[in-house]
Amino acid sequence: MEIVKELKGGSLSKTLVIAKERNLFVRKLISRKHNREYGLVRWQSQIRKLQVLNKFLPNSSASIVAIGTFEDYYFYDMPYYSNSSNCSEALLHGELPELIAEKIIILLNKMVKINFGIARGSLAVYVSEELLTPLLLASEASKSYSFPLNSQEKSFFMAAVEDAIPKVKMLLDLVANLEVMESLTHGNLTLENILWDKNSEELIMIDPYAETYCECIIGDVSQLFQSSLSGYEFISSLFEKQTYSICEYPLHLIPASHTHFARSLSDLLDREEWFSRINLDIFRASQFIRMFPFKLVSSPRQGAAFMIHGINLLNQI
């Protein structure tokens, strides 16, 4: 085996391109000893979800070709798609936003048809775990002397969080008995987790997530808007390079290609019977609020900024 190059690792310890018997593969590795909660659990859930996706949608999802141990890591291998880029890169490099949006709608409709029936109350579990619990944690964290915000930012953050908690409790009462059609989902359907094959102009899903609480396809849709309309990956990268105020989310820095894609996707979604704008608003706000526990450990200022953005989205419901 030859290591060809290392890719962006995401939640996992390492992602490598390797060569075996003249074939290229992507190897996803996770430490056997460290970051087990946010690493090993994610790695294992990816394997199980990929197996399910590949069973039902073999032409639209990556397959697993090997699983095992490597040095101090566990790994799984999947094919390397040499003539592809993720959808975020494809948009930046000039691929038509309308075309990618149309292909994504086709994919979403295939997933919706693999339905698991009505689940009463699953959205309430999701709201409790992914909205209320992080907000309560943020309330406690903001009172800590070590929370890395200046006094003005801390006051702003604390006020926003304390105002959001009763609103989420009210929302929880409203969705307590709501019926949701559950179906096959990806669980982490950001633009970076969909490959665009430049030859076939088809999509290939990678890096799914199984711990979703509510298997609603609109959760996947919300992550597409998280990537495009809210530019999560771009804003996250900006926060890593310099310090921004947590009070002003820099929407103006999101690439035009991504906002164009978001508009195209939104127009197409309005034609689908399964689509709910209200549910999208709930899920979209949650994508930024739910990350606070993880960000609190690794980059708390980012976590605070995304929490504020999530609360602002929540207030628009």
Q: Low-confidence spans: pLDDT under 50, at least 5 residues?
A: none
CATH topology of the largest domain: Aminoglycoside 3'-phosphotransferase, Chain: A, domain 2
Strand composition percent: 15-25%
User: Roughly how much helix do the residues carry, as a percent range?
Assistant: 40-55%
Number of domains: 2
Radius of gyration: 20 Å
Q: Which H/E pattern describes the elements?
A: EEEHEEEHHEHHEEEHHHHHH
Which CATH architecture of the largest domain? Alpha-Beta Complex
Strand adjacency order, main sheet: 1-2-3-5-4
Main sheet: strands, sense, barrel: 5 strands, antiparallel
Shape: globular
What structural class do the secondary elements suggest?
alpha+beta
Q: Descriptors for this entry?
A:
Aminoglycoside 3'-phosphotransferase, Chain: A, domain 2; 11 helices; Phosphorylase Kinase, domain 1; alpha+beta; 3-stranded antiparallel β-sheet
Q: What is the element layout, followed by pairings?
A:
Blueprint: E1 2-7, E2 14-20, E3 23-31, H1 36-56, E4 66-70, E5 73-79, E6 84-86, H2 87-92, H3 97-113, E7 115-120, H4 122-142, H5 151-175, E8 179-183, E9 194-197, E10 203-205, H6 217-227, H7 232-241, H8 256-269, H9 277-289, H10 292-298, H11 300-315
Helix pairs in contact: 3-8, 4-5, 4-9, 5-11, 6-9, 9-11, 10-11
